[in-house]
Amino acid sequence: MIAGKIVRLVSAVLDDRQRVYDWCFHSETTKSHAGPPDYPNVVIPSYDEFYSEYAEYFFTGATPCDGQGYIIQHDGEAAGFISYTCFHLLPGKAEFDLWMNSETNCGRGFGSDAIMALAIHVRNTLGIGEVIMRPSAKNARAIAAYKKAGFEESDLLPGEYLRAEYIALYGDGDYGVGGTALLRLRMTPVTNSAPPTSSPVSSMIR
Ligand SMILES: CC(C)(COP(=O)(O)OP(=O)(O)OC[C@H]1O[C@@H](n2cnc3c(N)ncnc32)[C@H](O)[C@@H]1OP(=O)(O)O)[C@@H](O)C(=O)NCCC(=O)NCCS
Hints:
This protein is of the alpha+beta class. Helices cover about 20% and strands about 20% of the residues. The protein is built from five helices and eight strands. An eight-stranded mixed sheet has the order 1-2-3-4-5-6-8-7. Bound molecules: coenzyme A. Coenzyme A binds near residues 32, 99, 100 and 110.
């Protein structure tokens, strides 16, 4: 369990997969990032299509160096999902994705708190020094939440964060070149001589 200031991140398990998929693609928050009317070109995937990308290890914790998923909880109730992914990125980097399960759970600080808590976790456990997020450039609420968590808009090129073999597949982002915003959080990585801390993200930003 990872503790934020107002939310807790609980490792997701295989039984969470259906609800995590539904929250993303068949809930009242879906319209903010996929499907018509605002995202007609972002196709809603089937459950099987979604999980051909979101591998089982996100829900078992089997390969934490590749990625892992967490249920965002508030007051013991599930409020959303957040994950980090590293397998496609250059060493020392991670990408976060997250979505809430209802509009009621948006705009209450849960998203930015979950991001900050996960950033500290991957920094301390995996030596991550840089986190990227790539929402739609139209998703003003997501961009505001990520900036609140310490991220800055960046003009990094795909070759500066993706492993060479993944540039063709992931370089354009989910919303295409021009439609995808790139936000970056830089942190001072933990070195062997510096023990992990739970310092606030603000004090770790380079
Ligand atoms: C994006 C998301 C994860 C952010 O989490 P959250 O818990 O809502 O974010 P927070 O409450 O921490 O911060 C949201 C900020 O956006 C601001 N905001 C809300 N609506 C906004 C809008 N239309 N334009 C600009 N900013 C907006 C809020 O005021 C808040 O900032 P503040 O606390 O400084 O006032 C969540 O809103 C969500 O799941 N949305 C639907 C799915 C989605 O878009 N996922 C992201 C895919 S990349």
